[in-house]
Structure formats: structure tokens, C-alpha cells
Amino acid sequence: MSSLFTRMMDESRHDLYDIRTSAPGPAGSLPLTHELLMEAPSGDLFGLSQNVGMGWLPNQLHGKQVLILSTQGGIRNEDGTPIALGYHTGHWEVGLLAKAAAEEIQRRGGVPFAGYVSDPCDGRSQGTTGMFDSLPYRNDAAIVFRRLIRSLPTRRAVLGVATCDKGLPAMMIALAAMHDLPCIVIPGGVTLPPSHGEDAGKVQTIGARYANREITLQEAADAGCRACATPGGGCQFLGTAATAQVVAEALGMALPHSALAPSGQPIWEEMARQSAASVMELEAKGIRMRDIVTDASIHNAMAVHAAFGGSTNLLLHIPAIAHAAGCAVPTVNDWARINRSVPRLVSVLPNGPEYHSTVRAFLAGGVPEVMLQLRQLGVLDESVMTAAGETLGRVLDWWKTSDRRALLRERLREADGVDPNSVIMSPEESKRRGLTSTITFVSGNIAPEGSVMKSTAIDPSVVGADGVYRHTGRAKVFTTEREAIRALKTGGIEAGDVLALIGRGPSGTGMEETYQLTSALKYLPFGKYVSLITDARFSGVSTGACIGHIGPEALAGGPIGKLLDGDLIEIVIDLNRLEGSVNFVGQGEERFTAAEGEAILAARGPHPDLASDPALPEDTRLWAALQSVSGGTWRGCVYDTERIITALAAGKKALGW
């Protein structure tokens, strides 16, 4: 035997073999009744045995059972030091929220249960094959959350604790589907920025900046060490994690002023106790998810998304939440209408014009402050019910004169010397400062089914005085993100180019997120003169002239999959009218109209290197097929059971099965 095996199976530990074969069991008796024994399912009765077996006191078994689900990851010591790392800070501390909520439920005579479905980190998987599982994970996690809820038939309410890009949307989808249960989302909050250093968005560009001699090796190492200045919470910018928290609150699924709280701090932990108390109150009042997530609350969430300048990834998540809730699924026209009517009011990373962190947005008043400003525009439905058990109108009346609002806004002035009105602006101030609306939907002969751009994030210096961004440039076509980032690092992309990344939609990569590219373009000196077009998607912290979600995707026959190096691409984005086009208008020295370009692309074959990524998991291939027949990206990449069953039945009939 090897020495390792001998040490591992050390036979000198005789205490290991002193094994008990029975135990006396818990003291006392189950509080059973004649009616329970005659009428209750055996599962309910055995559940009581399980509960006391885990240590719950028999005389406390009849309290209302509340299930706490979370995305907790990693293993922490009591002092917070790691035993085993989590995937990201966003799930590292959420166990503290679950614990605080459970203690509050117990204090109120309830019986808390807890379950976990951890989540990946989009930042950690950028540029790797891990990204191929990112968006598909959301559907899988929502399924498991729903199964866990249904697997505890005696639960009377559900709390969902989640923070980040896919775990929080999955939680919202799962809870929105619980039409007959009271549920509340507890957002996991945000991490703090370093006192001196780079935020977690900018730090993800150290490789590209080092390769282009923008920073030294030591500068990269120092910045990378300090970017996550506190151990818990989502990133410090208004990316997908922060936007999802904002949307949860705007939907009414989370308590007022709970999104973006600083992780680990007393106000953050108290929010968990308040949520536990509130969900028990909702249960007592008979307020259920069908009363909270409605067509009107979804409209409100879309309006708040526009006012914050939120991540384009929520165009995938809000429709999925609506689908789960049984509400009308927002269309592109709905998004365009709301973005034309709702101004952007929030100045945060990455949009600017002042790059405030998310904790400053929280101190400035967060979601209720933004909704208070939107109230005067008449774009909100104030009759909707919220997780507080009060209508939105009553919540906003409270917020306007609350001590919480006054004290936190004053704290922002004291701590950082920042005027809260420079973080969350009035509509009049926003207009005076020139803040543009959030999203433009772009079509053209390259994107006949449409595409999306976070147009508010285009560098103002490359936008014309008339508010129109115009770029005509030669395509540099890549079929893998690795090739594209190598070109950025080694001089293969220059000012004036149009970087076309193709075949990276649902069928190619699971619709990977390409922040590795968009972040590099932001922080390289020539980057603002480069446009990016792709059938993949972008991180919520992406900035610049980046057009994503192009449909049809290349591998579904979309014309983007027929582009070649040197093709002339014309991009026109009107930031005032929120209209745009992306067209193939030339090859070689030849120039032609968009209609002529459409005909040329139609006659072309696909790019010779176009193919699904060889590392694409079978799980993701299945996800891509199921979401495609369910309506694809514009319906939120959901699983529409009826449409899938119809498609399978038609396929079986056609195949003669």
C-alpha cells in the first residue's frame, strides 16, 4: 500500500470504531390529535417526526411553516473567514440574511425551513466555457426552486434570498409562479467599492489594458486585489445583479428600499427581519403573489428599469417573470414605448454622467426615490400591491416624509460629500444634464428580427450634436470570443472597425455574455471609435456602441452569420427618438443601399467558420432548442410548456413516430 493510503486509513484511531447502534430519540411527544391521525397525509405526519429529529421542540411544531430559499454558496466560519470559497461575493453572505429571517419567524411563533440552490458568477466565467451554462442555468434554477417549494406541502409562505445575475432572476421567476402563496424576495445587496482603487467592472479589463501597455503588471495586481472591497453583495455598478434587485423591488416582490443595501451592515440584516415579519403578515391578510405580480406591476418595473438605465439582460428576465406569473409578456413595442416616455434619472456606474457606486444610489433613496420622481410624470400605477402589504401609492406617501429617507440622504452627504440629487435626479434636472433614455431597439438587413442597444451608454463624445450616433466601418468578423479578445490585445482591432462576433447566440454558446470585449473597448483609448455587433448578449455593466441580441441568430440562418471581413457596415442610432439601424452597405469598393445589401446577404452562404462551439454542453443545446420553440429571446428564453408539447407532437407526427 502507498504511504498516503496507509496514513489516510490510519488504524491507530480506535475511538473511530466506538459506534452507537441506537439512540433514545427526542424527548416528549408529538402534538397529534384524533383529526390529524384520521385525516392528515402520512407525509405530513412523518414530517413532524423529521422536524423533532432535527431538534425542533415538539411543543413548537404547530406554528406556521415558512420556507426560506437562498442562493448561498461557500462555507464560512462564524467570523466570516472562508472554509470553502463560494463562486462570488453575491452569495457569500446571504446565509446571514436567511439566518436573521429564520430567527424572526421563530420569534413570531413560526417554523422556518431553509433550502439552497447556489448560483454561478458571470464575472468569473467571462471569456470561458463556463459562460455557456450561464443563461440556461436560470431556467434550471427556477425549476429546482419551484420543486423545492412544492416539495414542502405544509409551507404557508416563502422567502427568497438572492443577489446576482442569474440566481436572483431565477428566484423571481420561481416565486412569481407561486400564484397562491405569499412570497417576498430579500435582495442580497451590494459590495462596497475600495477607498482607493478600481471598481469590479473596470478591474475586469486589466488583461486588455496590460496587453495594450495602459497599465503595468504591478498596477494590475494591486487593482485586482482591492476591487471587491467587502466580502458580500453584488458588484458596485448597475449591472445585471443590481438591476435585478431594483426590478424585484419595483415589481413589489421586495420590501420598499431593500434593493442595493450594503451587504453585511445592520440596515441590510434588519431588512431580512422586516421581510420575515412582512411575509407572515401577507399570509395572515390573504395577499398572494397573484395580487402582487400583475400586468400593472410589470409595467412599473419596466418604467423603473428605464429610469435607472438598467442592464439589457432584464429584457430576458422581466418577460420570463411575466410568463411565470401568467401575465402579458412585454413585447419589443412595449419596451420601446416605455423607454420613450420614461427619462433616465439615475447617475451611476457604468452609465454616468457621474460614476457613483450602487451603495450611493441606495443612500440617495434607491427605488422609492426614483418612483417618487416618476410619480410626477404619471407613468406609474400606484394602485398595485407591494410586499409591504400596502399599495405603492401609500408606500410613496410614507417615503416622501420618512425619517429613513432624510437620514440616509444626509448620510450620503456626510460620508462622501455627495449631493443625493446628483445621484437620483428630478426629471427636470435629468433633462438639463442631458441624460438620454436607456434602450434603443435596432433593426436592419443584419438584424431583420431586431436587436438591442444600451444607447445611453454610448460615449457622448462620439455622438453628433443632433443626438445621433453614426458609424460606417469595415467588419472584422470573429466566430469565437477568444479570437476577438486576442485581436483586441494584439492590435487586430483599430479605431473605425466594426467588430462582428457571430454564432454566439443561444444555439452557438447558450447566448454567452461578452463583457470581456465590451469592457476592454471602454477602457482602451481607441475603443469608443469601435462598434460591436453580435447575436450574443452583454453584461449589464457594458458601455459603448454595442448592439446585441441580433435576430435571427447566425446559426438559425440570420444574415449576421453571412458577414465577411471587410464588409462595410453602417450603424445609425438616434438617441432622442430611440430608433436605430444596422445595415450591410458595401463590399470592397462597391457601395449599395440597405435593400441591395439584403439581397446580397440572402444569396450568400454562411461564414465558412460558423458553427456551434465544440465545447457547447448537451444541456445547453437542449435549453436552446426548448427556448427557441417557446418564442426565443424576445419572450425571455422561457420554457413554454404548451408550445413545446405542440412542437413535439407535430414533430412526432411528421416523423411517423
From TrEMBL:
Gene source species: Paenibacillus spongiae
Keywords of this entry: 2Fe-2S, Amino-acid biosynthesis, Branched-chain amino acid biosynthesis, Iron, Iron-sulfur, Lyase, Metal-binding
Record flagged with keyword Cell membrane: no
Location of the Dihydroxy-acid/6-phosphogluconate dehydratase N-terminal domain: 88-393
Protein known as: YjhG/YagF family D-xylonate dehydratase
Matching InterPro entries: Dehydratase_YjhG/YagF, Dihydro-acid_dehy_C, DiOHA_6PGluconate_deHydtase_CS, ILV_EDD_C, ILV_EDD_N, IlvD/EDD_N
GO molecular function annotations of the record: xylonate dehydratase activity
Domain Dihydroxy-acid/6-phosphogluconate dehydratase C-terminal: 436-582
Family: Belongs to the IlvD/Edd family.
Gene3D superfamilies, per database record: IlvD/EDD C-terminal domain-like (3.50.30.80)
Enzyme class label: lyase
Keyword field contains Iron-sulfur: yes
PANTHER family: D-XYLONATE DEHYDRATASE, D-XYLONATE DEHYDRATASE YAGF-RELATED
EC number(s) from the headed UniProt entry: 4.2.1.82
